[in-house]
Amino acid sequence: MPKLGMEPIRREALVKATIAEIGVCGTLDVSVAQIARRAGMSSALAHHYLGGKEQILVAAMRYTMGIYAAEVRGALAMAATPAARVEAIVRASFSPRNFRTDTVAAWMNFYVLARRADEAQRLLVVYQRRLRTNLCHALRPAIGGRAEPAADRIAALVDGVYLQQSLGRDTPDSDQAVAQVLGYLELELERAAS
Fold first, then answer.
1. What is the pLDDT of residue 3?
2. Cα–Cα distance between 163 and 151 in angstroms, integer?
3. Mind listing the pLDDT tens digit for each residue in 45-85?
4. What is the pLDDT of residues 133-169, one digit of tens each?
5. Which top-rank group of organisms is this from (predicted)?
6. Tell me, what's the pLDDT at 1?
7. 144 with 188: CB under 8 angstroms?
8. Mean pLDDT of 87-91
9. Which among 162, 155, 29 has a CA at the least distance from the CA of 103?
């Protein structure tokens, strides 16, 4: 069995430290030194393993998006109806692992980073396209031609709940967030039935 080297362990430690540090500070105004200190290593090692600050921030979001994607895939595999598929996506968006104070702060700051960094912009576009595609695929059997605009609105609601949470001081409430977004889904499904 091959020996696991230190590189993947240190990369993961840096990624988790980045998310935690952004969660504490609430902004991208964190230094590589702060992140490295939280990860228990030197700034030089942080730069060695992940590059500069921008690359470290992008690596943290890749990690966060990977967790989210895995939760969505798992939830979709268990969903039997179109409405259940949309609900699965929404619930994954606000799962306890994805809808934490530090993760919400990381997402909001990632949106800011994407406005000025090409790699972050590309990653954000991939995330948005996948979310929209999954929602459209789930909605189309239930509401037909209105699936695309409804998917756009649901995606905007998810982003809006994250934004609203980032501005508040309360602990994220997954159940309330899910209820807000699924309330809109119910309206779309009722409209399709009438």
1. 53
2. 18
3. 888 888 888 999 999 999 999 999 999 999 999 999 999 99
4. 999 999 999 999 999 999 999 999 999 999 988 887 6
5. Bacteria
6. 44
7. no
8. 96
9. 162
Amino acid (one-letter) located at 143: I
Total residues belonging to the chain: 194
Judge whether residue 170 has pLDDT over 90: no
How crowded is the C-beta side of 186, counted as CA atoms within 13 Å?
6
Q: How far apart are CA 43 and CA 85, in angstroms?
A: 43
Q: At 109, which amino acid appears?
A: N
Q: Alpha-carbon distance 185 to 143, whole Å?
A: 10
| Distance in angstroms (rounded) separating the CA atoms of residues 13 and 41 | 9
Helix (H) or strand (E) holding 33: helix 32-39
Query: Does residue 60 contact residue 15 with C-beta atoms inside 8 Å?
Result: yes
Tell me: pLDDT of 114 over 90: yes
60-193 belongs to which homologous superfamily? Tetracycline Repressor, domain 2 (1.10.357.10)
Q: Domain residues of the chain, as ranges?
A: 60-193
Element (H, E) at 194: none
For residues 80-119, one letter each, b for 16 or more C-beta atoms within 10 angstroms of the residue's C-beta and e for the rest, the string is eebbebbbbbbbbbbbeebbbbbbbbbbbbbeebbeebeb
Asked if residues 46 and 14 have their Cβ atoms less than 8 Å apart, the reply is: yes
